[in-house]
Design goal:
The complex is a heterodimer. By secondary structure, chain A is an alpha/beta fold. Chain A is built from nine helices and 18 strands. By secondary structure, chain B is an alpha/beta fold. The chains are: A alpha/beta, B alpha/beta. The structure holds flavin-adenine dinucleotide and adenosine monophosphate.
Chain lengths: ~375, ~270
């Protein structure tokens, strides 16, 4: 079958591409190459002619662009109309459609899937293409060997399980992917691609919902995604005061933030904005220190791409020790204060040494710190 | 005014019972509970009852014990319940679930507003609400944190990345309620007494809670359950180690453990340069 297509929905806000679109192109490129398919990006909005070159530079073979005043800001029904019209205008449906698990992607994807009567897997953390052989006595019509299916992989309900969800019986196979998980391709200005305008034919009914006001206050967001060091606390803290201790540890690092597991958030010890994991943020700092966190899969998927993971947990059989790089088995209320003490002591020694070298300028002290 | 609220019974993830050693769920043994997100949907539905005298119907699809969540809803003040239960529903994915629920909603009446939870803790997809809205051909407001209904129009605040949005739509509309919305209060005394009566009196129960199957609502069995589900869980894999083995320090005094750690990882580098 020629003309296979992987379609990526690229979100924009006020004419600015959102990172998730480029992340999806990074993942989509790999799938498209494996499948021998075209990687198409789809972007909707108004006055967005500057976006297709960015999408092409990040891996798209072609970009479908719908530019219309009614599409300026995302709304379910107009977007649903334009996208399903486009897909139905093609002689065959795309092999795969990918969207982000953002408030927009999770609003739109299920409507598309229901309209196209096809399968959709939510909140994936891994994607792949591969074969699948299936026999089912209850529904023999589904049995067979399917050479190229989308493997949509996501955490499952259990504590340490991932589920591989497949739906090769019908195209498009659809998935939403968590932001921050996939890695965009580096920009390559020499890449070529077609830009194809998409017709926009809206129904009056599509416009029944109106946006009165949109407020985005990004500075207020806890900047977990940009911190280089994250000190995270879980249910093992036992009380909200535990986070005070963790803030102290975090303060030992200049570019740091405090994170948490969901159980600590659900217990009301810290606001949701700090939550790391499947239903929180995905982070990949240089250093992640998990204190009193067991390491359930739903937490793990949000942080296991961190460069170095240190776990402090009193239970040596906690799953977090299966994937952390370093661990201390012990009571965090003893270990963390000692860690803070040693950090501060070391800092003091370093400063002392730097100060005892009288002719050194402040700027030259920094290499000494780095040399530690 | 007619309000529907869709609720689901899920395994209790905090109870260890029913979690197999390989991490899968034994649904027969697992403790059951009302999906925590659906509590916010229930509260939103009850708000329409308090403010507009709406009649509130709670709908659930699941095996027979799922009737428990309908009792719970009634204890909180819901007027009537509908249980969609049928062996042919086993292995439904979200597409099949939304189809079945759409047929059930159509059978049950013409709601002005339908509330869903944002997502379930077992399915965990946040898909069923929007898929149901698509099937019913009505607009949706997802991630709703607060709303007001006046003169057939709903004005709602929904959460978006890094902020919020105020939207306005004519009824009917489907709303998925975020867990930053209003919390559900305690059951009412009247509600609890009503449930006690329903549990004793089969005739009263049958009037308050309708138990339906696919044929009752004219659902096509081919579009339900396993047959109507385009996706399956093909495999679950246990998550193993990532980048090699964890270097674990234990069995010594705390200062020794911490020293070993700081010798193994150059923490001071992060403190100085990060
Ligand atoms: C659909 C779904 C989505 C989810 N999304 C997320 C998510 O986004 N993020 C998330 O984190 N979780 C999420 N979860 C929950 C997840 O499954 C776990 O329940 C949760 O991560 C556990 O949090 P925890 O590790 O803090 O608590 P626990 O599992 O209770 O672990 C506490 C740990 O602390 C240790 N401990 C106790 N006292 C001390 C002490 N004094 N010193 C040192 N160690 C101590 C214990 O040994 C234990 O290992 C989700 C679950 C579901 C079903
Ligand atoms: N079996 C069901 N019965 C009733 N409502 C459901 C069912 N499954 C899902 N829902 C509704 O859809 C919402 C989202 O579910 P999910 O897509 O599974 O995350 C839930 O919070 C419920 O309001």
């Amino acid at each position: 079958m020629d003309c296979k297509r992987i379609l990526v929905f690229a979100e924009q806000v006020n004419g600015e591409l959102q990172p998730i679109g480029l992340e999806l192109l990074g993942a989509g490129r790999r799938l498209a190459d494996k499948l021998g398919a075209t990687l198409s990006a789809l972007v909707l909005g108004h006055n967005i002619a500057h976006l297709p070159p960015i999408l092409i530079g990040h891996g798209a073979d072609q970009v479908f662009i719908a530019d219309h005043p009614e599409l300026a800001e995302y709304r379910t029904l107009p977007y649903r109309r334009v996208i399903t019209d486009l897909i139905k205008s093609w002689p065959q449906p795309p092999h795969t459609i990918l969207l982000g698990s953002t408030t927009t992607g999770r609003d739109l994807a299920p409507r598309l899937a229901a309209h196209l009567e096809t399968g959709l897997t939510a909140d994936c953390t891994e994607l792949d293409i591969g074969p699948f052989e299936y026999t089912n006595s209850k529904d023999p019509s589904k049995s067979g060997l399917f050479p190229d299916c989308l493997y949509a992989i996501r955490p499952s309900f259990g504590e340490s399980l991932k589920a591989r969800i497949l739906g090769p019986w019908k195209n498009p196979q659809m998935a939403t992917v968590r932001p921050g998980v996939m890695v965009p391709l580096p920009w390559d200005g020499s890449r070529q691609g077609d830009v194809i305008p998409v017709p926009v034919n809206l129904d009056p009914g599509d416009l029944s919902l109106q946006i009165v006001e949109t407020v985005r206050n990004l500075s207020q967001a806890v900047d977990l995604t940009r911190a280089k060091v994250i000190v995270s606390g879980g249910y093992g803290l036992g009380s909200p005061e535990g986070f005070e201790l963790l803030r102290e540890l975090a303060a030992c690092f200049p570019n740091s933030a405090v994170g948490s597991s969901r159980k600590a958030v659900d217990s009301g010890w810290i606001p949701y904005a700090h939550q790391v994991g499947q239903t929180g943020k995905t982070v990949r700092p240089q250093l992640y220190i998990a204190c009193g966190i067991s390491g359930a899969i739903q937490h793990r998927v949000g942080m296991d791409k961190s460069q170095t993971i240190i776990a402090i947990n009193k239970d040596s059989s906690a799953p977090i020790f299966k994937f952390a790089h370093y661990g201390i088995v012990g009571d965090l209320y003893q270990v963390v204060p000692e860690l803070i003490r040693q950090m501060q002591q070391m800092k003091g020694e370093i400063n002392e040494r730097a100060n005892s070298q009288p002719f050194q300028s402040a700027g030259e002290r920094i290499p000494i710190l780095q040399g530690r | 005014m007619e309000t529907f609220v869709l609720i689901k019974q899920v395994p209790d993830q905090n109870a260890k019972a029913g979690i197999n050693s390989d991490g899968t769920i034994d649904r027969a043994k697992a403790k059951r509970m009302l999906n925590p997100f659906d509590r916010y949907a229930l509260e939103a539905a009850l708000q329409t009852k308090r403010q507009h005298g709406a009649r509130v119907t709670a709908i659930t699809m699941g095996p027979p014990p799922a009737i428990e969540v309908l009792y719970e809803a009634i204890a909180h003040g819901v007027d009537r319940g509908i249980l969609m239960t049928d062996r042919r529903l086993a292995a439904s994915d979200t597409l099949a679930t939304a189809y079945t629920l759409a047929q059930t909603v159509r059978y049950a009446g013409r709601p002005h507003v339908i509330f869903c939870g944002l997502q379930t803790t077992d399915g965990d997809t946040a898909q069923v609400g929007p898929q149901l809205a698509e099937r019913l051909g009505i607009p949706q407001i997802t991630y709703c944190e607060a709303f007001e209904i006046r003169d057939g129009i709903v004005v709602a605040r929904r959460a978006i990345e890094g902020g919020s949005q105020i939207v306005m739509a004519p009824l009917p509309v489907l709303i998925t309620v975020a867990n930053s919305a209003r919390r559900l209060a305690y059951p009412t005394l009247r509600g609890v007494q009503r449930v006690q009566r329903l549990m004793r009196d089969e005739a009263a129960r049958a009037e308050a809670i309708q138990i339906l199957n696919l044929d009752d609502v004219g659902a096509d069995p081919e579009r339900c359950g396993l047959k109507g589900s385009p996706t399956i869980v093909a495999a679950t894999e246990k998550v193993g180690e990532i980048g090699g083995n964890c270097q674990v320090f234990q069995g010594q005094s705390v200062p020794q453990l911490v020293s070993q750690l700081t010798q193994a990882v150059d923490l001071f580098r992060y403190a100085a340069t990060s």
